[in-house]
């Protein structure tokens, strides 16, 4: 018989159908006890035929497990973070885990509250993309170490925090930044600006990209100039659609009209392209604009954005796999992994134009 009503099939229904005890059915479904292969086969087939779905609550209570991962991200929206979360969820789902997703909005107090809530919810592991704007970096790290030391595995994603006692999977931001700045140099650009989001002390990804930018200039024999560097936006308006065109215009003039700009992330690069359009600068004819991340809309803007592909989905998947490895004992000690990015050449860099003299 197949269940066609809204009632939930239980092991008692299966037991009644097969003339077995509920205990026998439970053992057969869980692979426990001394159950013959024939009986187990009959029970499993009947369960499938009748539409039986095991209760996660009952499963959790019987095994003292929640089969849940906690995920803390600064924002979701149209960012690399959303792709990372998609990767985490994909691996968790395939492993029979649920996730609880929390957005810190780059607020350290909120991040801390969410971490404590996840502990209270008895999640079995936590994947966190730490906020890059914090009141106290020491407090942020101490809290993560406290959770790790309590026996709850923590995996840090995207931000390469300076702590060896936590499992981390991060992007090689330094190498990626060098690749894209070298590409601009090869196109003939000599005055290349760098625009960031602030939070210099704790934005480890941004700092690594800045270091790669400076090294590429140095390797090419180009002078580094402070006037080419500016905070073009803030963490708090990271997801805003609007951008102050006057702010970019003021930077452009103060920086001596750079021929190219490297934005620390794609969202900022896209805003800069919009600002250029608003003040009459043609991209890439008058100024080249490049970014970092390769978020979903990067290839859809006009002109399509040249960027560094950050394999965000794959990074999320790997972070979830590391968390599950810590949970089930496959991974005993914290590890650190660094992922390489790939240069994606589109129209915003002017690669199709003649090389600048």
Distance between the termini: 79 Å
Q: What average pLDDT do the residues reach?
A: 87
Q: What would you call the structural class?
A: alpha/beta
Helix content: 40-55%
The largest β sheet comes out as:
6 strands, parallel
Number of helices: 12
The proportion of strand residues reads 5-15%
Tally of strands: 12
Widest sheet, order of strands: 2-1-3-4-5-11
Order of helices and strands: HHHHEHEHEHEEHEHEHEHEEHEE
Gyration radius, to the nearest Å?
26 Å
Shape: elongated
- Uncertain residue ranges: none
Provide structural commentary.
By secondary structure, this protein is of the alpha/beta class. 42% of the residues lie in helices and 14% in strands. Strands 2-1-3-4-5-11 form a 6-stranded parallel β-sheet, with helices on both faces. Helix 5 (80-94) crosses helix 12. It starts with 10 loop residues before the first helix and ends in a 13-residue tail after the last strand.
Question: Keyphrases for this structure?
Answer:
elongated, four-stranded parallel beta sheet, 12 helices, 357 residues, alpha/beta, six-stranded parallel beta sheet
What secondary-structure arrangement, pairings included, does this model have?
Blueprint: H1 11-18, H2 22-30, H3 37-50, H4 56-63, E1 68-73, H5 80-94, E2 98-103, H6 108-120, E3 125-128, H7 137-149, E4 154-157, E5 167-171, H8 173-186, E6 192-196, H9 204-219, E7 229-231, H10 245-254, E8 260-263, H11 266-278, E9 288-290, E10 307-309, H12 312-328, E11 336-339, E12 342-344
Parallel strand pairs: 1-2, 1-3, 3-4, 4-5, 5-11, 6-7, 6-8, 8-9
Antiparallel strand pairs: 10-12
Helix pairs in contact: 1-2, 1-3, 2-3, 5-12, 8-9, 10-11
């Amino acid at each position: 018989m197949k269940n066609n009503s809204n009632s939930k099939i239980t092991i008692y229904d299966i037991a009644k159908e097969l003339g077995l005890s509920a205990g026998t059915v439970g053992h057969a479904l869980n692979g426990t006890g001394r159950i013959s292969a024939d009986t187990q086969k009959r029970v499993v087939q009947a369960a499938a035929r009748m539409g039986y779905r095991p209760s996660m609550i009952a499963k959790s209570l019987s095994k003292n497990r929640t089969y849940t991962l906690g995920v803390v991200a600064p924002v979701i929206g149209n960012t690399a973070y959303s792709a990372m979360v998609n990767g985490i969820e994909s691996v968790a789902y395939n492993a029979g885990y649920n996730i609880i997703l929390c957005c810190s909005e780059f607020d350290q107090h909120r991040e801390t509250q969410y971490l404590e809530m996840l502990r209270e919810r008895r999640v079995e592991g936590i994947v966190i993309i730490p906020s890059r704007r914090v009141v106290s970096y020491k407090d942020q790290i101490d809290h993560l170490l406290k959770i790790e030391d309590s026996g709850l595995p923590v995996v840090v994603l995207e931000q390469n925090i300076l702590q060896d006692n936590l499992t981390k999977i991060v992007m090689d931001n330094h190498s990626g930044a060098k690749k894209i700045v070298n590409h601009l140099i090869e196109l003939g650009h000599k005055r290349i600006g760098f625009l960031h989001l602030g939070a210099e002390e704790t934005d480890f990804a941004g700092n690594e990209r800045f270091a790669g930018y400076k090294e590429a200039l140095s390797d090419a024999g180009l002078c580094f100039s402070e006037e080419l560097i500016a905070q073009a936006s803030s963490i708090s308006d990271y997801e805003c659609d609007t951008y102050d065109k006057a702010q970019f215009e003021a930077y452009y003039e103060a920086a001596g009209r750079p021929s190219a700009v490297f934005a620390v992330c794609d969202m900022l690069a896209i805003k800069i392209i919009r600002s250029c359009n608003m003040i009459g600068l043609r991209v890439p004819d008058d100024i080249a604009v490049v970014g970092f991340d390769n978020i979903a809309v990067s290839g859809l803007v006009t002109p399509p954005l040249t960027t560094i592909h950050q394999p965000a989905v794959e990074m999320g998947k790997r972070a979830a796999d590391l968390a599950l490895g810590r949970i089930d004992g496959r991974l005993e000690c914290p590890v650190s992994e660094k992922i390489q990015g790939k240069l994606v050449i589109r129209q915003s860099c002017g690669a199709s134009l003649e090389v600048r003299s």
